[in-house]
Design goal:
GO terms for molecular function: dipeptide transmembrane transporter activity. It contains 14 helices and no strands. It is an all-alpha fold. The protein has 2 domains: about 1-65, no CATH class; about 75-305, MetI-like fold. It is elongated and about 85 Å long. The two termini are about 25 Å apart. The mean pLDDT is about 80.
């Protein structure tokens, strides 16, 4: 992880410098400036230093928790992140709960019941998978916010945590819709494969109740595949939150990243991008560590391969 984060930090820092424009032009807001004023701006933000020198200085500051100063907001990036990151984490947590609860339920029902129920769920999940997050956001806003007036159409509210959750209901559903369809399909496929396995046939022949067969022998043996998909789901949530937060005007790091990219706010974009990469890697590490606990065959297979 340390080596990967180091490479990622270099890519994150260097990628923005490949784009046209520079922070100085934004700071000047189209006004002409004397060479002395331009030199002062470049000196303040170290824009004239060699690329490798800027990168090493930035990396050293990041290791000490200093992400620099925002060019757009004229404040420390760490303060911006502290104000906005909790909102994004709440949004992702709500979306994850919806994805896991609905996706697992639909996948399990489709695999166990089959027939018309399975076909209906497949059609529904196909629609969900084919609906991008920003399209879902527009539809949900139009129906549940504008027409029915059940939920707010934008913002995060000012009435505490309960009001924040109410404002994030529609964004969380828009963020979760695509992933519900994906998880339901993965769960269905994994359970259908487990239903055809030998040990399930033996359990049924011994007279074990079907409910217990599904719970102990089918669903449990499918959790390894589902957990692996869970890492991809969380990673997708981290990325798609940018579109959803922008559509619903949610003041999280996703919207901040979009605004900072538009204004060439290098320090803010670099900090958020690095945080997303770190969260992505952390989630995948946790999935790798949890997988042997869910499916002991992973550990046994590794030992046999080593032997």
């Amino acid at each position: 992880m340390a080596a990967t984060l180091l490479v990622a930090s270099f890519v994150v820092f260097g990628a923005l410098y490949l784009a046209p424009g520079n922070p100085a032009s934004f700071l000047l807001a189209g006004r002409s400036a004397s060479p002395e004023a331009l030199a002062a701006i470049n000196a303040q933000y170290h824009l004239d230093d060699p690329f490798l020198v800027r990168y090493l200085r930035w990396l050293g500051d990041v290791l000490h928790g200093d992400f620099g100063r925002s060019i757009t907001y004229r404040t420390d990036v760490s303060r911006l992140l502290a104000d906005r990151l909790p909102t994004t984490l709440v949004l992702i947590a709500m979306s994850l709960v919806v994805v896991v609860a609905v996706g697992l339920l639909l996948g399990r029902i489709a695999a166990v019941r089959g027939g018309a129920t399975d076909s209906a769920i497949l059609v529904t999940t196909t629609f969900a998978v084919g609906t991008p997050s920003f399209v879902a956001a527009v539809l949900l806003q139009g129906v549940f916010a504008v027409d029915l007036g059940w939920f707010p159409s934008s913002g995060t509210g000012e009435g505490g945590f309960g009001d924040l959750v109410r404002h994030l209901v529609l964004p969380s559903v828009a963020l979760a819709l695509y992933l519900i369809g994906m998880l339901a399909r993965v769960t269905r496929s994994a359970m259908l494969e487990a239903l055809d396995s030998e040990h399930v046939t033996v359990a049924r022949s011994r007279g074990v109740p079907e409910r217990q067969v599904v719970r102990r022998h089918v669903f449990r043996n499918s959790l390894g595949t589902v957990l692996t998909t869970g890492g991809l789901i969380v990673s997708t949530l981290l990325v798609c939150t940018i579109l959803v937060e922008t559509a619903f005007s949610v003041g999280g790091i996703g919207q901040l990243l979009e605004l900072s990219t538009t204004t060439k706010d290098f320090p803010t974009v670099q900090a958020i991008s690095l945080i997303i990469v770190a969260l992505f890697m952390t989630v995948n590490l946790l999935v790798d560590l949890a997988l042997p606990l869910v499916d002991p065959r992973v550990t046994l297979g590794s030992r046999r391969a080593a032997a």
